[in-house]
């Protein structure tokens, strides 16, 4: 049963994050025609950080958001800040070469540094806490973790990492559900909405114009692209599309066709006692297991267990999120059986067919950039995408090309039929998880 959000949270979801937000600054609606160097569509991490990076390079920027800043996945996610971009860059070796693979691997480390540096440089209060574990559920997951450990070492990953077997795992988690863990002190967890709101403050202070309740309804391509809203218009030299899982098919059928909006959900328990916290998560780390339909969880700053999981492809939320997620929580932590749930919520992540974020330029409009499809691993990658787009626009570097060269399938079947197809594909992977 969810607790109602306070009044200031109008048009945000009823989540723990909204209830504990550091002030929800209201931005104006766009009601006139304006001209800027760069227009950004989407007020999540991708859009906000692109605005920051571009203002830092001297470009004038307007950002349009349908609802509120951080209203999408960026204000609802599990808050796990984890190294790496996409799933196994080596699978794209034929398209981007060995150097390209290495470059994506290194950017997967840089991405976390961008977030932590932004937080410390601008004093963003978002409860950042380092320490994260990948958890093995099956014995074969332990082999995969050992391989990941070696890969990280050979890629020159500098942050402390270590493998824990079943006999050692009590150091980090009070649960018998797992075979072992890979501990990474270079990853961690944070309050995702407060990160988005803090970054929006930075963008504003740098002089970016942020507009809420200003849906981009139409795009007119050309030397000077135009973005039309209900009451206004932005003319720009460059356009950045950052609507991700909420972009839909109408505004850009090309982008909408390559990203599948997929629901995932969270519970926030009532605050636990210090003793309970010390028993279940003694070192205050974040966790995610290695199954396709994974659980992810950590403690909030006020000692609630934030427990996430589930994947839905229908575009509809489960009728009762608590009923769907509680069994998973109690399987991991039987000692919390019957714990009161104070909040439940979910959001849409954008998933692409090959599980590599889609970052580049539209094939028929070189002045229109986009970044989307980070799946459930976007807190860091969005920040890297923002930097790559700003570097490309300012001609500072074309590091973006390594992503632009990766081919991404358009989901067949159109908006109506692609969800059941992906569900069937995921079911196959879930069956494999059971083996
Ligand atoms: C429940 C959940 C849990 C997750 N957990 C994690 C996690 O623990 N760790 C992790 O790394 N990642 C996680 N993710 C993924 C991560 O949150 C996303 O990858 C990331 O937030 C994407 O940011 P974004 O800015 O690209 O998209 P979003 O934050 O979704 O922002 C897109 C914005 O664009 C706006 N928009 C869309 N169309 C238009 C339009 N026409 N005009 C104007 N605005 C428009 C939307 O309203 C939205 O606010 C999770 C996602 C969800 C949903």
If you had to describe this structure to a student in words, what would you say it looks like?
Pfam families: DAO (PF01266). The strands form 2 sheets. Strands 3, 4, 5, 6, 11, 12, 13, 14 and 15 form a 9-stranded mixed beta sheet that branches. Strands 1, 2, 7, 8, 9, 10, 16 and 17 form an 8-stranded mixed beta sheet that branches. The radius of gyration is 21 Å and the shape is globular. By secondary structure, the chain is α/β, with parallel strands linked by helices. It is 31% helix and 24% strand. Bound molecules: flavin-adenine dinucleotide. Flavin-adenine dinucleotide (FAD) binds at residues 41-47, 64-67, 71-74, 76-80, 82, 215-216, 242-247, 251, 264, 266, 296, 308, 346-349, 374, 376-379, 382.
């Amino acid at each position: 049963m969810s607790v109602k959000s306070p009044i200031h949270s109008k048009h945000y979801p009823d989540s723990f994050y909204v209830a504990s937000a550091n002030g929800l600054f209201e931005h104006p609606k766009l009601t006139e025609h304006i001209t800027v160097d760069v227009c950004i569509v989407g007020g999540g991490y991708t859009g906000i950080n692109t605005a920051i990076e571009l203002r830092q390079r001297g470009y004038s920027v307007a950002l349009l958001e349908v609802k509120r800043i951080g209203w999408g996945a960026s204000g609802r996610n599990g808050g796990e800040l984890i190294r790496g971009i996409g799933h196994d860059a080596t699978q794209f070796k034929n398209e981007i070469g060995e150097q390209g693979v290495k470059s994506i691997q290194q950017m997967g480390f840089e991405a976390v540094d961008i977030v932590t540096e932004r937080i410390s440089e601008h004093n963003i209060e978002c409860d950042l806490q380092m320490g994260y574990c990948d958890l093995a559920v099956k014995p074969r997951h332990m082999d995969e973790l050992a391989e990941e450990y070696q890969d990280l070492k050979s890629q020159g990953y500098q942050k402390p990492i270590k493998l824990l077997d079943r006999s050692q795992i009590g150091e980090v988690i009070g649960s018998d559900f797992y075979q072992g863990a890979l501990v990474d002190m270079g990853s961690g967890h944070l309050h995702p909405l407060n990160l988005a709101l803090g970054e929006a403050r930075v963008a504003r202070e740098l002089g970016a114009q942020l507009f809420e309740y200003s849906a981009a309804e139409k795009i007119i391509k050309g030397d000077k692209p135009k973005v039309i809203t209900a009451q206004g218009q932005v003319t720009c030299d460059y356009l950045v599309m950052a609507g991700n899982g909420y972009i839909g098919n109408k505004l850009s059928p090309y982008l909408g066709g390559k990203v599948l909006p997929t629901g995932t959900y969270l519970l926030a328990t009532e605050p636990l006692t210090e003793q309970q916290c010390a028993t279940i998560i003694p070192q205050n780390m974040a966790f995610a297991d290695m199954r396709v339909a994974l659980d992810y969880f950590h403690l909030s700053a006020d000692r609630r267990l934030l427990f996430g999981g589930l994947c839905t492809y229908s575009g509809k939320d489960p009728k009762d999120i608590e009923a769907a997620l509680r069994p998973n929580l109690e399987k991991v932590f039987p000692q919390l059986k019957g714990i009161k749930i104070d909040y439940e919520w979910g959001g849409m992540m954008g998933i692409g067919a090959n599980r590599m974020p889609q970052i580049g330029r539209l094939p028929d409009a070189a002045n229109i950039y986009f970044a989307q499809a980070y799946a459930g691993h976007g807190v860091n990658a969005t920040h890297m995408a923002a930097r790559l787009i700003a570097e490309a626009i300012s001609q500072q570097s074309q590091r973006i090309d390594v992503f632009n060269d990766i081919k991404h399938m358009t989901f067949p079947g159109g908006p109506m039929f692609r969800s059941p197809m992906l569900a069937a594909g995921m079911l196959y992977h879930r069956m494999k998880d059971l083996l």
